[in-house]
User: What shape does this take?
Amino acid sequence: MLKDKIEKVLLKVQRPSRYIGGELGSVVKDKSKVNVRFAFCFPDSYDVGMSHLGMKILYGLKNLREDFWCERVFAPWEDYEQAMRENDIPLYGLESLDPITEFDFIGFTLQYELSYTNVLNMLDLAGLPVYAKDRGEGTPIVVGGGPCVCNPEPLADFFDLFILGEGEEVNLELMDLYAKMKKEGASKSDFLHEAAKIEGIYVPSFYDVSYNPDGTVQSITPNCPEAKPKITKRIIRDMDKVFYPDSFVVPFTEIVHDRAVVEVLRGCIRGCRFCQAGFIYRPFREKSSDTVCRQTKALCEATGYEEVSLSSLSTSDFSEIEKLLGDLSEYTDKENISLSLPSLRVDNFSEELMEKIRRIRKTGLTFAPEAGTQRLRDVINKNVSDEEIMNTCRMAFEGGASSVKLYFMLGLPTETDEDIIGIGELTDRIIDLYRNVNAGKRSPKLSISVSCATFVPKPFTPFEFEPQASIPEITRKQKLLLDSTNRKIVSVSWHNYRISILEAALARGDRRLSAVIYEAWKSGCKFDSWDECYKYENWVAAFEKCGIDPSFYDNRTRSFDELMPWDHLDYMITKEFLIRENKRAHEGLTTPNCRQKCSACGVIQRIGGGCVGQD
Amino acid sequence: MDKINLRAVYAKYGNAKYFSHLDLMRTMQRAIKRSGIPIWYTEGFNPHIYLNFPVALPLGTESYVEPMDFSVVEECDLENLREKLDNAMPPGLNIISVKPQIMKNTDVASAEYDVTLSSDKHSSEEIVEKFREFLSADTIEIHKRSKKKGEVIVDIKPHVVVTDISSENGLVLIHFILPAGNSFNLNVNTVLDAFADKTGISTDVVCIKRTKISAENGEDFV
Assistant: This one.
């Protein structure tokens, strides 16, 4: 029994309840009565993975089926990994505590590029070869899903198949097919050939990639009849009818987002040009206010959470937001549940909405202007004006607020020194405003925190053609920002740009990066998104060893007619649209949001009408 | 209506022994919320369920005798209340009883433990013998970190009471009585660490179970 081995080491590691399961809401079944077992792996720690909504949805959905059993698996933290390796404990599912090599599927959700080495490490901890070609008959099918699958090429060598788009339908189709073929005694290869026929399933080994002498991709060619020339992502049509869990696994130990979460809409009408999520999750689809209310109540009652969060890319774009907040706060007030609304945009903060939110929860004032000047905000299509930021700050300051958090990106396309100095100027204006509002009053000291990320160009965005700023450029820009802000009041922080340049290479990389990921992992890289775990030098060495220059992926302007490594994957938006948007960016022209005017991204043709603003 | 103060006795065992005292607070608050009992919320800007745990239970220790204080806002049938709470508990937590609060928090004096140990390197008989020797020393000095004084040396010998020690099927069974009050308390693991320190024998804990919490006068704390 694995359980005995686990319990023997559990009290020697940090926060052991992460490794033993048994939480409220976890689903334990009789394995002799299920046909298909699915190990849902989140390639990061329990605390991070347990906060992920997609996993909660697919876990609930699969476990509703009597003949399927889905379990959770996370990356063990270093202390427990060491204990596992020393005591021959293979990676196991938290529900059964069975090794995941006994499962039919091992599924990874790929939420960010910096989790890729954890995928390899988890396969290795399971006792499996990391390369798909080395995993023989009788080993689990290794599948991947999530946003990074829009360019899974750097991981192509490690996976048997990828699932493109939203998973609620296609996961069940895939598992049903597997159940049927398992009964018939089909081989792994037979299964993959059949699976490739399902809409949204991409089997990377069914495609050959060739390269031009300059290193760019020359062709991506199907090598078997089942492989479609283009694989189209899956979407859910009706958000009111799609499965949503009425219960979550409630962890014992504190996790990053420790609350009930209700998804209110998918997609985004905004079209910010740097934002991958804003394009790959199109079209915009909402639940009705009644559905959201019903799901909120069900979840709160089942979990006992004291906090519920309404989740989406932009919750303030929810058409029925005022009605929803009215209805919901009636319930949450009565039950002493606090309601939080992440990702609110500044430009449609109405006074009534502010009032409701203030009543619901006193949160800090957070804006993401992303760029310091109006010119650059127009380039990236972040339609937030100085005036709106000032108005919102004024309202908040008049209400007694004394801290403001601002998010920016450095290294955006067309950025000049003026744009960076503009960040400092924007904070100066906020400081003046605060002094004016509080003139003659005893007021707390204002604090402004400016948090800067390095721009990472991503596939399926109008900026997929753009170079990332080079390291000397980034460091120069960071210094310039420091010099142009009032450091007595403004605290400036940034993400580690050494991590951002790796993220950029992996995001727009091709299959040749599989070898780099392998080498980096072999040399001890894992948890790359954790500053304290990131080993930059090891990555540099891994690139060198493979004879690959990361700047080929990071710092090169790609022409509009270059074949991208992901061009055989179809996320419903057209290349023509991305090119059009890229040109508009360089002309400094904004594009109206989908509700104001359709910009013909291509999705409406694919779904046959019924998109937002075009009923 | 005034609030009514109650004391539940709960059990924590199985997988639930692997979460900490801090996690227990959250877990209990959520369970109480799910149970739907007329729990009392703190009054103030951020109303929350108020719970008080007169004794802390170390991570890894099982218990069937743990007190938890809470208040309700209406007169309830206590058995009915217990049942509702118990039904809402996650696996590994149970509500054994719900009674009015009689003793004060400060009445807690000592706790008793059943401890089961194993070792790959030493026979259980050897460990029993060494443990007896360890206990018969004149002093058992340990380094204890204190918030005010930094690291201090404390003689725990007068505080460690072992009422039973034996070996059975290769395992060592020890029954401890240790101080558990607010001013001074001693953890089983601290004693085992001291044993390992003095004798060089490190043991694996198979199970630590708290079996009784007593007041100064020797009565059960409830």
Summary: Strands of chain B lie at 4-12, 61-72, 93-100, 108-118, 141-146, 150-155, 161-168, 171-179, 204-215. The mean pLDDT of chain B is 92. The longest strand of chain B covers residues 61-72. The domain at 107-215 of chain B is CATH 3.30.70.3190 (Alpha-Beta Plaits).
